[in-house]
């Protein structure tokens, strides 16, 4: 028998709660969500329905060897969306060694 221990971090719940709370308190004019998890659909739909003046964006991490697309469940509730590929992440990293500094990128990155 195999046992899998799935440790739920409640990240989606926290993100959804903050997105909705921020809309109601006027904390933002535009929110950009970095996820492709359709669990966030209800939060995006709620903000869009009750606060149409706020802009919503979606940056969706898409693995390089995966031909998935941005979740249509999410994209129907945002004003704009962009995929985030491994190439984008690689290009956004600091260089191996920071110029004029003793700092360097950890090998695990």
Automatic annotation (TrEMBL):
<dbReference type="Pfam" id="PF01936">
    <property type="entry name" value="NYN"/>
</dbReference>
<feature type="domain" description="NYN">
    <location>
        <begin position="7"/>
        <end position="56"/>
    </location>
</feature>
<dbReference type="GO" id="GO:0004540">
    <property type="term" value="F:RNA nuclease activity"/>
</dbReference>
<protein>
    <submittedName>
        <fullName>Uncharacterized conserved protein</fullName>
    </submittedName>
</protein>
<dbReference type="InterPro" id="IPR021139">
    <property type="entry name" value="NYN"/>
</dbReference>
